[in-house]
């Protein structure tokens, strides 16, 4: 029994390492294709300011009719953020919403889902850092399965293979994100099992 348990640990460790390696390689995109036109854009705060400036650029390029910046710090005023982003006043007033209810990625998903349903949006461009994109997209898909999400990742230094393969800090950052991604995938699986069980219970005898 002890040897079986040891082999199980070894296999799990190998699976984790292989999964992490694939995850780290997959999130790196040297060329990011422009997203198709959508009804709106959502940019998630955290990480780099480039997430937000990229969302603004897409709005200015008419890739969406409206922009949600989700997870804005409650102590930051609208005017302060717009000034940092060098956002045109008319564009900010007509087409930019600042969400302040989200404290994490799960909160971003809930905030975005409420906003999308309020405006009846069914196609959104999602802007966040490259290594954060898989988990963000998964969270948003769970929160609003009726909405089609077009990912637009912002490239970061952390996903440079030369960096994370040689720097423990960079590898740890991506590794932590990979663990969080596995958690949401596990949650997805549990939700799917629960839905299947409910469907089975409602079948006619």
From TrEMBL:
InterPro entries: Cell_Envelope_Assoc (IPR051599), DUF218 (IPR003848). PANTHER family: ENVELOPE BIOGENESIS FACTOR ELYC (PTHR30336:SF4), INNER MEMBRANE PROTEIN, PROBABLE PERMEASE (PTHR30336). One of its GO terms (cellular component) is plasma membrane. CDD domains: YdcF-like. Coiled coil: none annotated. Keywords: Membrane, Transmembrane, Transmembrane helix. It comes from the Bacteria. This is DUF218 domain-containing protein. It comes from Terricaulis silvestris.
């Amino acid at each position: 029994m002890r040897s079986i348990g040891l082999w199980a640990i070894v296999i799990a460790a190998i699976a984790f390492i292989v999964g992490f390696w694939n995850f780290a390689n997959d999130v790196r995109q040297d060329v990011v294709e422009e997203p198709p036109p959508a009804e709106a854009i959502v940019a998630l705060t955290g990480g780099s300011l480039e997430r937000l400036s990229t969302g603004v650029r897409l709005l200015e390029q008419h890739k969406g009719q409206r922009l949600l910046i989700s997870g804005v710090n409650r102590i930051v005023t609208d005017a302060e953020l717009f000034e940092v982003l060098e956002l045109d006043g008319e564009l900010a007033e007509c087409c930019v919403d600042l969400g302040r209810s989200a404290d994490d990625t799960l909160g971003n998903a809930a905030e975005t889902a409420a906003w999308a349903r309020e405006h009846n949006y069914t196609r959104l461009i999602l802007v966040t850092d490259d290594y954060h994109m898989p988990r963000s997209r998964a969270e948003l898909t769970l929160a609003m399965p009726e909405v089609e999400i077009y990912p637009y990742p912002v490239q970061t230094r952390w996903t440079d293979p030369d960096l994370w393969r040689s720097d423990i800090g960079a590898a740890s950052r991506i590794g932590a994100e990979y663990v969080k991604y596995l958690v949401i995938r596990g949650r997805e699986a549990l939700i799917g099992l629960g839905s299947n069980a409910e469907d089975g219970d409602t079948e006619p005898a």
